[in-house]
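One-letter codes give the sequence; the fold follows as tokens. An example follows:
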Amino acid sequence: MRIAFTPFSLREVWSGRVAVLIKLYRELSLDKYLDLKPPEPATPQDLYLVHSEEYVDYVRRKSAEGYGLLDYGDTPSFPGVFEDALLAVGGTILCVNEIVKGNYKVAFNPQGGFHHAKRDRAAGFCVFNDVALAAVLLEKAGHRVAVLDVDGHHGDGTQQILYDKPILKISTHMYYPGFYPGTGYINELGEGEGYGYSVNVPLPPDSGDDVFEYVLEELIEPLLTLYKPSVVVLQCGADSHLGDPLVGLALTTLSYRTLAESLKKLRVPLVVLSGGGYVKEVAARVWLSTLLALLGAAEEVLSPLMDEEEGTKSPESVRRLVERRINDLKAYLREVYGDL
């Protein structure tokens, strides 16, 4: 089995991590596992599946102006931002198409995962939400889709766009008062036909590999088993990793490898999107090690990408808090899924 891999060149603010990724790809001779596939840009019509026409036109105009912000906070506008964002989304569409055609079991866009973008606005460095778009496109192709987001920040845009849709969305993320984006608590469960399909696991700072394994075994695996997806969209944010400057979680490459082993048990295709990760050398190792673990690569292939020390332990207070939240979340979900 091989992986469709869709890297491309963008401005340095977007391409620094991919440069490291390609360097590792070449140094470790990973062409045995990954097939490079250059994407075509998405079209505005593609974006209309998850964004309003007014918002898409707004980004086009701001791109032509070439300065300022796309939102009220931290998403910059610059000359060509519209075209760059279309290419980023195009990488995800290529991944979706390769999965739908049955050409690959795993497809990876290293410049995807923009889960903060809302239907009508940019947010958190995210212009267009390719995570939600991947889910919608796969559903339109007849798949039963699950979205799993392990980024250190809550995928609030993906949740908003899909909140009333019966597409399972599971997000693990750091959560405490004042931490961006301030959403993603256990009582945000969806609405209408989507009630019970938004599942949030808010993790306290210092949550380590032991807590992630607990969440995986106690909630994520049983939920996915009950839901029976035919495809999974994985937002594989690397900023949950220990030492990321923007997030205070304490995962190591062990958690991402454990996640990969868990997802392999489902025996379904995966669209993998990179997401956050602000130490570029770490992010590149996290993504490549996750992909290779999904392929079942040998230990000698994985070892150069692993952290020297794995198996981080969480403070007892953190573990107790996560256990309470999981128990409360299971109670909320019981009316939809029964006992998990």
Q: What stands out?
A: The radius of gyration is 19 Å.
